[in-house]
UniProtKB/TrEMBL annotation:
GO terms for molecular function: 16S rRNA pseudouridine(516) synthase activity; RNA binding. Keywords: Isomerase, RNA-binding. Coiled coil: none annotated. This is Pseudouridine synthase. Responsible for synthesis of pseudouridine from uracil-516 in 16S ribosomal RNA. PROSITE patterns: PSI_RSU, S4. It comes from Caulobacter flavus.
Amino acid sequence: MTKALMARLDRLLANLGYGARREVQALVASGKVTFDGVPLKDAGKRIAVTADLPQHLMIRGVPVDPPAPLVLLMNKPLGVVCSHREDGAKIYDLLPRRWQIRDPALSSVGRLDKDTSGLLLITDDGDFLHRVISPKRHVEKTYLASLDRPLSGKEGEAFASGTLMLEGEEKPLLPASLDVVDEKTARLTITEGRYHQVRRMFAAMDNHVVALHRERIGGITLPGDLEPGKHRILTTQEAEQVFS
Ligand code: URA
């Protein structure tokens, strides 16, 4: 068994976004922070940072937020951006306010365009993030694309060929698979994450994507009952399903 990481209580609470070090120290001194129902009076006490921490550590009787590493599954709505740096409404605005100041910070695992909806993973676990987006892993991503014009019938072969070049690029795309849903709708599975890849693939076939929705990343499928803008916390085992 791996040894649990230990952290000072004040540092742990500050990193979870409950306030500056001084503020959380005052909170602890007020007796509002309890462990298994017993008030903790020493902000310097070292606490084992385990996934079940919220079952033990409470603030005013409310379980603390789950500690890092945290993996979230979001149904990204249209109109929000994944980048911290871009202007406009962000995926992070859809999360509890405290989570926006957590340390380590939460980041999306790859990006979806502002006008793409669907499955998005968000994490503060850099190792997990890099494993998912690593080009070596070839994690599959499936998108449902609605198109402006009827499919020509040539897309499946072109996408599967491993020779399709996107405009302005020097390396051909890896083979991708296309399932036709109807004459203007297709499911496309890719294993890379190039900039605007799906839209550019259909543009290379003289078509235009009018709506794009990600349904799956590896072994994780967007749950049908998760409304746009909502998220769910994944257990470590659920998050690892992405590689299955
Ligand atoms: N491909 C795109 O073109 N856009 C996305 O958001 C994801 C994949």
